[in-house]
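## retry 2 of 3
previous attempt timed out at serialization; input unchanged, resubmitting
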Amino acid sequence: MANVDDRLALDPLDAEEALVLADALLAEGDVRGELIVLQRALAQFERGELPGLDPVAASTRIDRLVRTCRRKILGEWATSRHLRLRFRIGNLERVRVARGGTEELAGLVVALDAPESGTLHTLEFSSSRVARQIVRLCRAEARCFPTITTLVIEPCETDGENVPTTKGYQNLTRVFPNLVELELPSEFANRVRVTRPLARLVISTHPKSVVRSYRTRASGVAWSFWLAQLGVGATIGLHDFAVSVATAVQRMSGDPGWSRVAALDLSRSSLDDTEARDLAEVLAFDGVARRVCVEGTAMTAEGQARLCAVPLVTVEGAPAPLVVRPIVRRSWKMRPDPSNP
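## retry succeeded, writing output
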């Protein structure tokens, strides 16, 4: 079985190799073999290549097989609502950890180190507290996960009493040494040093973080620190950023590492028409070919036209549609007063 797991980890999404591995897994009584066949058949049905498939029956069977794989990987923690597993072509691809106690997270660390988790490459944490607990447990047991290439740590909401701490983030890349894509809250951005050039970096802040000191610290991201750790053709994302997008891009454009950036992901930023006008001026002065993703922003067609007019800049995605609520006029009639006939 170790040989099959090694081959699954090499290229889990190769279509021809997947069928060969499915036969090997079915011969050994592993339910992942049937899961590979069904998921591939369902993908062919969605492309119109397999019209005779019953999608309802296939989806029902896939759900049952996923629950079986979940029990096999997580053991006693399979029923936890805080852990979400995603399988693709029969292989564990993504795990999201919402929260959990120390024992539950310790069980997850052991499960992630199992052979069945060898194809896992994306790990998501709903808060920095959960990420620090996982890193602490892994360091205590001398565990590391070289197969994980994408790490997402979502920013948390802060109020006047609960400001996140940056302690413990120095060991993040020791546990995940081969990160290629990284999404970090801005308050931790200056604490992590990666061991290999990044292909995608996203700095994010929570839109409801109201602490002044927190947002000031969020706006002080050392861009030179991160631009030096990016690979050629990398993508930088600014999500719900605490300062002006144009200001952040202007700060980055003065650094020598800015030439490595090929795309800007502003899909969850504060980009509007005013920001788009300032950003267009910065990008026009820069004069380098770049892609800008504006999917779902508050920018209108006017701001999008300004960005599209910049030479060498390709705008991807569409802003969020403007929702106009109709005004409902109601006529109120005075009720008769029974005491005054």
